[in-house]
Amino acid sequence: MAEGHGFVESGRDRILSSVRLALLSEAEFPSSAQAGVAVPGAPGTPLAPPEGEQMGDLDLLEEVLRDYKAHVTRASHDEIPNVLAQLISDQPLIKSVVVPKGLDPSWYEKITGSEIILDLDSIPHSELAAVDAVITGCTTAVAETGTLVLSSRADEGRRAISLLPDFHFCVVRSEAIVRSVAEIFQRADASRPVTLISGPSATSDIELRRVEGVHGPRNLFVILVQ
Amino acid sequence: MSRIKAGFSTSSLPRIGNSQLRANLRSATSSIREKRARVVGEKSDWEELRRKAEKIKDQVLNNLDAYLTELERSVEDVGGKVHWARDSQEANEIILSLIKSHGSKQVIKVKSLTTDEMQLNDFLQANGISAYETDLAELIVQLGNDRPSHILVPAIHKNRSEIRDLFKQTIARGRDISDDPAELAETSRSYLREKFLSTEIAISGVNFAVAETGTVCVVESEGNGRMCLTLPRVLISVMGIEKIVPGLDDLAVFLELLPRSSTGERMNPYTSLWSGVYPGDGPEEFHLVILDNRRSAVLADPIGRQALRCIRCSACLNVCPVYERSGGHAYDSVYPGPIGAVLSPQLFGNESSLSLPWASSLCGACYEVCPVRINIPEVLVHLREKVIVDGHSSLAERSLFAALARALTNTTAFELLEKVMLTVRIPINRMPVGGSLPGYLGKWGVTRDLPEIPKMTFRMWWRHRDG
Amino acid sequence: MTRKASLFVSCFNDVLYPETARSAIRVLEKIGVEVEFPSNQTCCGQIHINTGYSGMAVPLVRHFVDAFSGSKEIVAISGSCTATIREHYLRMAEKTGDLELVERTRELVPRVFEFSEYLTGVLGVADVGSSYPHRVCYHPTCHSLRSLHVWDSAITLLKAVRGLELVDLPHAEQCCGFGGTFSVKNSAMSSAILADKVANILASGAETVVALDNSCLSNIAGALKRNKTGVSVMHLAEVLAHGIDREEA
């Protein structure tokens, strides 16, 4: 039809005009879909008082992280280097550790027995895949859901370095913690790539039962800094 | 014979008797139901969140043209390229030409129902491109030349030993593996690792797209999504026009609702968000394909349109007594279960649309758990009405209902009908039980006795008492 | 001043379960409610609406509104009929474009109550003085549970019945598989769902299954009888009417 006029409307314009047409037709149906419909509550759903209501954000974050199989260690700021060195030396599988360029160098200076690789955004993916561990900071963490938020900042690095190694060590400062998911974007800048991490990689694809460990890091260590 | 009688009631029939399927489904859905109830119970503001989500989605749908153009602008502002596709064919062609322009022969994929709806994999294969599914369940389906049967867990109809056997014949290359889910997951990890590292182009779906910032969001568990969204040089994401949220605060509402409704987790392991192209991190090229495929037609139906609020969580499947016994394949659509019964007829309008609206006892369990408050029973009844108005019910049924309606609007006629029933009550009550009776009575009688007709109707008794 | 209520019996109960209506009257009269039966009443239109013959049901809506126009409070002994009136009537009236009907419907719908809801919610009654010395389980029908939210009221009333032992019905909230014409249009599916309900009822050890809807109960009873289980079904009104006439000592 349009071709007959020597004018071809683009897919874009056709989609937009059929959307506009659809919205116009609504005027002919003044009664909304909700009219006269009883409002359901949620009977049958045990609405227990929210767990952890009395718990502080830091404690709640730790509990929820553990629930989803993350390893959690508490540390003071000064203890970070020793804690990281200890955690890494406890894992005989870790022979190499990649660190983002903006990570505080004092944090990894005590690590012995594993090679430290500073990522200057130039290591090819295939080489990163052979690295065993990564250490990052984090932008914010959500207590209610045990979620770590990374946003490609200098102490977190590009996404590939916290994805390919099998061990992820993430340092969370208590002042970075928020209560709920609703607060994430008050802290994280979405113009950068943002990754929300809640526990190690997992799948529920076989019989809907959760199994930890598929493609992402299978071991997640969180260092909570007070 | 009514055309409506065929379809779902026939396609579900062999599956009702399949005890292995039933056992797989029952055990999976009942465990997910309990998990969901637990994590939903933790959120004291759950109802408020549902209402917020409903409002946000309605706001988007009511102004969809404006949000679509806003999204287009913001995605292009951050270095993405937007493509518009009126139907599956157009979307598939767009994707094929993008792949060809890079001279690629293979792509990796993150689980995407929209590309399943488009039958993208078959289309690419026919054009010499291999598409590798990287989500564990999609991989299981792809390796077995099977079809998905659940929105979230496409291979829910298979249990661990069936999956073990499939892997042994395919990606394990004869290696002996156990049916331990962890070992099965490990098998897919080692098979796919090389694909993630060597493939140039990835294709994903979209869970949410933020109009204001051009941010696209993919929610997943395994890390295959992160691999596809981060490692390849080119990323092509496909979304239906309804996947928009206005701003980031709106997105946060859905990130609370989706994982709890879907996998029964407080939060899924991984959620990736990106805005166009970011120098030094991730793909160098980003394409967003926006697909209509009759969604705008659904938008024109003031009752049916609420189905476009769906965020594909699959909570409705997990609570549905019909889905639990039929499995997903009986719905003959990429969108099975209660949401499929309202979405598929509106989107595809094919033969099964005539029976799917009746594939429900209207028990309402789906509406109760829906995180965006889609009143599925209401839409089902509405779609039933449409099928009947379009003249697809049998003459016998129509006449029966018409006669009944006439009798019921005339009290004298109704009382006459009652008297007729009472005069034949003795032979009816003595009727042989079983499925040998004609029509609906026989259908009822296969498993159930009929109620006995008493000597006197209530209104006779009342008159007697009054007098 | 005596409280007056109009009973909506429903076509199904009128013909097949008059005992439920008689029981409801006994219970209401016992607690001092004067019961009327507007004799023009027939059917709420549920079967038509749910099967997709909504257009044919429009005159039924009008008929219902006419039949009960003089009633102050309307008590229905079917949860699904009550839900039909609440969920569909206004929308259907609006479709006619008859503003007077819309107004009358809008005014009538909030005056329709399900029986147990009327007793506990409107009258504030929990104990009507009945006795039923049997083991009973309660099946919350889908409409009463998810449209009307009257789970609590039935449980409250049952707990006050003398001698009644209320036992848990496993997976009580699951549908019995009836669904009106669903039971015959998808009869194999309906029967499969029903089979599980029956198994759960047997597992509960109850002698009697109680519900707020005789349509669901006729489905359940059909299978209980066919399988010669010896378990009976009863509408809540009948349980409450049991032993109610014995004068307290």
Description of the structure:
- The complex is a heterotrimer of chains A (226), B (467) and C (249).
- Chain A is an alpha/beta fold and 226 residues long.
- Chain A has a single domain, classed as NagB/RpiA/CoA transferase-like (Rossmann fold), CATH 3.40.50.
- Chain A is built from five helices and twelve strands.
- In chain A, strand 5 and strand 6 form a beta hairpin.
- The longest helix of chain A has 15 residues.
- The N terminus of chain A is likely disordered.
- Chain B has 467 residues and is an alpha/beta fold.
- Helix content of chain B is 52%, strand content 10%.
- Chain B is built from 24 helices and ten strands.
- Chain B has a six-stranded parallel β-sheet with strand order 1-10-7-4-2-3, with helices on both faces. In chain B, strands 8-5-6-9 form a four-stranded mixed β-sheet.
- In chain B, a hairpin with a 4-residue loop joins strand 5 and strand 6.
- Chain B starts with 7 loop residues before the first helix and ends with a helix.
- By secondary structure, chain C is α/β, with parallel strands linked by helices.
- In chain C, the strands form two sheets. Chain C has a four-stranded parallel β-sheet, with helices on both faces. In chain C, strands 6-5-7-8 form a four-stranded parallel β-sheet, with helices on both faces.
- In chain C, helix 12 links the parallel strand 7 and strand 8.
- The relative contact order of chain C is 0.15.
- Chains A and B meet through helix 1, strand 9, strand 10 and strand 11 of A and helix 3, helix 4, helix 5, strand 1 and helix 9 of B.
